[in-house]
What does this fold into?
Amino acid sequence: MKIYMKKFLTFCVALAASSTLALAAVPVQCGASNYTLATFATATASGIAGECEIGDKIYSAFSGTLPSSLVFNFTGGGTSSGSIYTVTVDDATVAAMNATDNFTLNYTVAIDESQIVGGTNTMTQVGAGINDSSAANATNGATVTVNNGTNCTGGQVTSVDAAGFVGSSPKCSTGLSTTSLNVAESYSYTSGSNSITSVSTSVTQTFTATSATPEPFSMLLLGSGLLGISLIGRKKLVRK
It folds into this structure.
């Protein structure tokens, strides 16, 4: 009996420990933190290890030729169907983005399955957008093109500058089983006054209900509970 109790105790400890490690591995939250490309490149200095998470989306592997003064802002949340997550590259000075005739931005966005309960999420659409602060300069030839390398026509979607914010329509379809996207974005600006304030890329998700699978926190509670029960049983055996 003691042998079985010892094995059970070992199993409970391992279960609780593995669940704790899963919880500890969650990346730093993105938020609207005004990260630059250099922030992601200098992982040790920034403390974000080259990636960040918002909702159930993990953004990583950032690279490109965009100006160093441009900053990233991340928005989104929720795990339900139709939830939209957006990465926006902002130009606070309304100068750097318009001073160059082109730049590129590459990154990966992946779904963190540990954040989803009772189903699975897939990224089913990708869109692009341009924000122009001046209606008078809405014909300045700016475009942003996003290539997600999946099932879009030509593998890309393009937004052309106009007054206010203009998003690509229709958005491109990525297929129903996409849980990770390698985004390659290019920006070009051919002429006009300085009025482009930001460009953005968005993903839209679809939630599919399945039989529930315990997430790390539930596994931690289960392991801790079983551990407590086994310790009580062990004490009773020792007393006998």
About this structure: The chain is about 25% helix and 35% strand. The two ends are 12 Å apart (CA to CA). The longest strand covers residues 119-132.
